[in-house]
Amino acid sequence: MNKELQNLLNEQLTSWEMAQKNYDALKRVRVKEVEVNGCLYKVQFNPARIVSSAAKVDSKSIQERKCFLCPDHLPPMQKGIPFGDHYQILVNPFPIFPSHLTVPELQHVDQRILYRFADMLDLADCAEDYIVFYNGPQCGASAPDHMHFQAGSKGFLPIEQEWKEKRAEKIITNEAATLWALDDSPRTTLLIESESKEAAVTLFNAVYGAMNLKSGEEEPMINVLAWKERGKQIVCIFPRARHRPACYMAQGDTNILISPASVDMGGVFITPLEKDFEKITANDIADILSEVCLKPADFRALIERIKQRS
């Protein structure tokens, strides 16, 4: 499928002016690097991403706008290719990655991962040049009312290179798969390393079932990355404690417009405003991660619940 996806991108960048403009701009984005507790984080100044970072995802705002992922509401220039029985693959016109895809469900159904995680692995299996990601409805999804995955070029997120050396604790292991806790605080990361889709799904379900569900929410707060590496399924699960950090709503000099999602959790922080790109430091990133990820005691409690359920 990689060739089909490249052909789709090439066609859309030829025929769709907005996508062409934003992909051209991506070649000129500014990037800087910082280190947080031995982990590399990149900061990307990407003005086009203001659409996502500043998205209003409250119920009232969602009800008042047309869903931009429904087939009937797509721009006439936006073309896709089918995936499975009920998804289509689209070029994301507001890219972070050199090749950035959105994979929405054809039907207008809420953003939920539990019974679709196997679909995510199938997508990672078919699109081996890509890393696939899922943003929970309160964890960076700008369309929490419409089920979708995204995918971006492999080799872009620092965690792809770091996960092996950060494996710290075996939580569950069997013949085909292992669930690890990574040593990458203040981020709280669980990682599945699996030789089969079925074993990966079993471990994911164990994690999901052990996570706390907040009052009024229908899904635990979660970001997920998945990719194929040397024949194995690699999955990063980021349990979340908070949607947006305090600096997102702060006034004056302390304001930083960052709404962390899977890409940020994977090590690339997206700043749509230049003032934030200029001033953000490693300490800011550590503070943001400390706020939106689980506290150490809560992460340990989650690990123990997973062990008890296995």
UniProtKB/TrEMBL annotation:
State any GO BP term from the record: glucose metabolic process
Catalytic activity from the UniProt record = GDP-alpha-D-glucose + phosphate = alpha-D-glucose 1-phosphate + GDP + H(+)
Q: What is its EC number?
A: 2.7.7.78
Entry-linked InterPro entries: Ap4A_phos1/2-like, DUF4922, GDPGP, GDPGP1_C, HIT-like_sf
Which Pfam families does the entry link to? DUF4922, GDPGP1_C
Superkingdom field: Bacteria
Q: Which SUPFAM superfamilies match?
A: HIT-like
Q: GO molecular function terms here? A: GDP-D-glucose phosphorylase activity; guanyl-nucleotide exchange factor activity; hydrolase activity; nucleotide binding
Cellular component (GO) terms are: cytoplasm
Q: Which residues form the DUF4922 domain?
A: 8-152
Cite the GDPGP1-like C-terminal domain residue spans from the record. 168-308
* Function, in words: Specific and highly efficient GDP-D-glucose phosphorylase regulating the levels of GDP-D-glucose in cells.
The UniProt entry, under PANTHER family, shows:
GDP-D-GLUCOSE PHOSPHORYLASE 1 (PTHR20884)
Q: Kindly provide the name given to this protein in its UniProt entry.
A: GDP-D-glucose phosphorylase 1
